[in-house]
Structure formats: C-alpha cells, structure tokens
Specification:
Layout (H helix, E strand, L loop, with lengths): L1 H42 L18 H8 L5 E3 L9 H7 L1 H8 L2 E4 L9 E8 L8 E6 L11 E8 L4 E6 L2 E7 L5 E9 L4 E4 L1
Antiparallel strand pairs: 1-3, 2-3, 3-4, 4-5, 6-7, 7-8, 8-9
Length: 200
C-alpha cells in the first residue's frame, strides 16, 4: 500500500513538472515570437512610425506628424544596416546598444515643458548616399495635444553611424563612439529664446 502511494505521488509530481515546463515553453515561445515580430516590423524603415512609440504613448497625433515629415519621401528612420559600431563599442554598451540599433529613438521631456511625450529620432536622408546622410530630429509635444508638432533639427547632414542617444539625470545626450570603444559626449539643451536645440 505504501509503495503504491509513493508511486502515485511520484507520477503526480512528474505530471506537474511537465505541465510547468510546457507553460514555460509556451511563455518563452510567445515572448520570442513577439520580439521577432517587433524586430521584423522595424526592419521596414520606410513604414515604421517611431513617433508613436514611448512610455507615455508617443507623440500626440503621431501618425499625422510622421506622415507630414516623410511626405516627400526624403526621410526614414535609421535601420540596423546604417550603423557602423565597432566590436569594442558593442561590448561597452551591450544590450543597450542592440536596442538602440533596433529602434533609434528616445522619448521624454526634452524642452522642460513638463510633457514626457517629446520624441527624438535618428533619421536618414535618402537623397544622400555618403556618410553625411544622418540627422537627428526632435519633435516637441504640443501643450494642448492638438497641434501638429514640427521637427527641430539637432544635427543634419552628418555622419552619425556610430552615435547613440542617452537619457540620464543630466538630461538628454549624444554619444559618438570611436573604434576602441571610447566615446565623445555632448548634452542636449533646449534654447527657449531661439526655440531650437543645441548639443554642447
């Protein structure tokens, strides 16, 4: 009798373990599918809208803003093949750099208007073929959430193939990596008087 109970208990425990493994496998599979789908969508850099992505829901009226910005077919968001980070830089930044390459944009309150829906995007000028085809455009969220935001150019017509945007207690920054993994950094500031961004 005791032996039978032990066997029944063992069978029950094994069945439970298999069910847990199956559930974990399904969860991991769902996460993998979701990530792959996200990356697949971002690979189509002509159609992805980086303004609609962010912790606060993205830029207000993001679809209209991005449609207007890209209407003439000149600009698109930078894609993975546009970057030229060295192996040393990749080791230095790890997963953070991988996420940046997948989606080179960042959102937050950049102009101190207490709205965390401003979006900064690394874009490609499709009329240029050289290293100077990069630009960084910043879209300030309107106070009333109704106006169509326009692009403020932080950089335009520059080689930013090894650049990454960062966000810290010091605010927004742009880091440009050298081949050995070291980098230069400038801090982004909003000039309220001239209504423009600069990086020093």
């Amino acid at each position: 009798m005791q032996t039978r109970l032990v066997l029944l208990l063992t069978a029950f425990l094994c069945s439970s373990c298999q069910m847990e493994r199956a559930r974990a496998g399904f969860a991991e599979s769902d996460q993998a599918r979701s990530r792959n789908e996200h990356v697949r969508q971002l690979e189509n850099t002509d159609t992805v809208n980086p303004l609609a992505i962010g912790l606060s829901g993205g830029l207000p009226r993001a679809d209209e803003v991005w449609r207007q910005f890209t209407a003439d077919g000149r600009y698109r968001i930078a894609g993975a093949s546009d970057f030229r980070f060295s192996e040393a830089a990749r080791r230095e930044r790890g997963r953070h750099l991988e996420h940046w390459i997948e989606l080179p944009q960042i959102s937050g309150d950049f102009n101190d208007a207490y709205l965390s829906r401003d979006v900064e995007v690394l874009v490609i000028d499709k009329t240029r073929n050289g290293d100077d085809r990069f630009g960084i455009a910043i879209f300030n969220a309107p106070q009333d959430n109704q106006q169509i935001a326009r692009a403020h150019w932080l950089f335009e017509g520059q080689d930013l193939s090894t650049a990454i945007l960062g966000w810290s207690r010091d605010g927004l920054s742009v880091e440009e990596f050298r081949g050995d993994g070291t980098f230069t950094i400038c801090h982004v500031r909003w000039d309220k008087t001239n209504q423009e961004y600069n990086c020093k």
